[in-house]
Design a protein that fits this description.
Elements (H helix, E strand, L loop, with lengths): L15 E4 L10 H17 L3 E7 L3 E7 L2 H4 L4
Antiparallel strand pairs: 1-3, 2-3
Length: about 80
């Protein structure tokens, strides 16, 4: 179940951690991982969010985005 929306303050970083369901893999092929990064690149430009770091393994992925003004008002 997803968590409730968090407060987004421009310039304040978030730590987003995604894990596979029941510790299963998040990414089954290299294309899955690349698609995930492409999606984040699209969303970060759309919502003026700067991703300052990320780390990806097969079973977990961490992102460190800084919320921009467009993201803070989007309810995303």
């Amino acid at each position: 179940m997803p968590r409730r929306a968090r407060i987004a303050v421009p310039g304040v970083p978030w730590h987003i951690l995604q894990r596979g369901n029941n510790r299963s893999a998040c990414f089954y092929a290299k294309q899955d991982y690349l698609r995930y990064l492409e999606t984040w690149a699209d969303l970060s430009s759309r919502y003026e969010c700067e991703v300052h770091g990320y780390g990806g393994l097969i079973v977990v992925c961490s992102l460190f985005p800084f919320a921009g003004a467009a993201w803070c008002g989007s309810g995303f």
